[in-house]
């Protein structure tokens, strides 16, 4: 499994995985109309902008010549007063066809190392409260809810609640169970 910085050539694969993961993982959590309305082309446009930002690391996991997943790490967005000196994983998605084969683990481990080596003291991310499998995954890496809750009906299409998870760096780098 190779983990590397994404390039413009990866945008199509990233957008495809992004849409497929939302349509698979969030079915029953977000409205069907929101999920069915997602388009790869629209996500490609968003990713062109997101990857052009400064202080951003977009990483891809490549396995057997195919993009298996991606993550995006940046300074924490100002949602619900994040901790000072916090990095944020804004996206971590693995192609549903290759989940549970190590890509998510490898991506999160690399994001944690980059955050720590960049001088951040905390790593945070937002996860849908009802996305229990993702929550268990993050908890295996020592992340836990920090009490912050957020809803964004304009983006999510309903009142689904997101929980902020966090971990102190560098102490949070050890997984507590295999994943």
Query: Which structural class should the secondary elements be placed in?
Result: alpha+beta
Radius of gyration: 15 Å
Give me the count of strands: 7
Q: CATH H-level name... which superfamily?
A: Gcn5-related N-acetyltransferase (GNAT)
Sketch the topology as an H/E string, one letter per element: EHHHEEEHEHEHE
Please give the CATH architecture.
3-Layer(aba) Sandwich
Strand order of the largest sheet: 1-2-3-4-5-7-6
Name the helicity range: 25-40%
User: Terminal Cα separation, in Å?
Assistant: 15 Å
Task: Give a short account of the largest sheet.
Answer: 7 strands, mixed
* CATH classification, class level: Alpha Beta
Query: What is the CATH third-level topology name?
Result: Aminopeptidase
Please provide a written account of the structure.
- It contains 6 helices and 7 strands.
- Mean pLDDT is 91; it is low at 174-179.
- A 7-stranded mixed beta sheet has the order 1-2-3-4-5-7-6.
- A hairpin with a 2-residue loop joins β2 and β3.
- The chain is α+β, with helices and mostly antiparallel strands and 179 residues long.
What is this structure's SSE topology?
Blueprint: E1 2-5, H1 11-25, H2 32-36, H3 40-51, E2 56-63, E3 66-75, E4 86-94, H4 103-117, E5 122-128, H5 132-139, E6 144-151, H6 153-156, E7 161-168
Parallel strand pairs: 4-5
Antiparallel strand pairs: 1-2, 2-3, 3-4, 5-7, 6-7
């Amino acid at each position: 499994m190779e983990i590397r910085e994404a390039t413009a050539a990866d945008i199509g694969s990233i957008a495809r995985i992004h849409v497929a993961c939302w349509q698979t993982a969030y079915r029953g959590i977000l409205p069907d109309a929101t999920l069915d309305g997602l388009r790869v082309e629209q996500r490609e446009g968003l990713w062109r902008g997101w990857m052009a930002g400064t202080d951003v690391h977009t990483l891809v996991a490549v396995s057997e010549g195919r993009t298996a997943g991606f993550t995006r790490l940046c300074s924490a967005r100002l949602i619900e007063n994040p901790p000072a000196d916090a990095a944020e994983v804004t996206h971590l998605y693995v192609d549903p066809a290759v989940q549970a084969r190590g890509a998510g683990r490898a991506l999160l481990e690399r994001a944690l190392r980059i955050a720590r080596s960049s001088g951040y003291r905390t790593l945070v991310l937002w996860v849908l409260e009802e996305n229990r499998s993702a929550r268990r995954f993050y908890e295996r890496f020592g992340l836990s809810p920090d009490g912050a809750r957020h809803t964004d009906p304009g983006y999510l299409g309903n009142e689904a609640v997101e929980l902020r998870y966090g971990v102190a760096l560098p102490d949070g780098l050890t997984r507590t169970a295999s994943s």
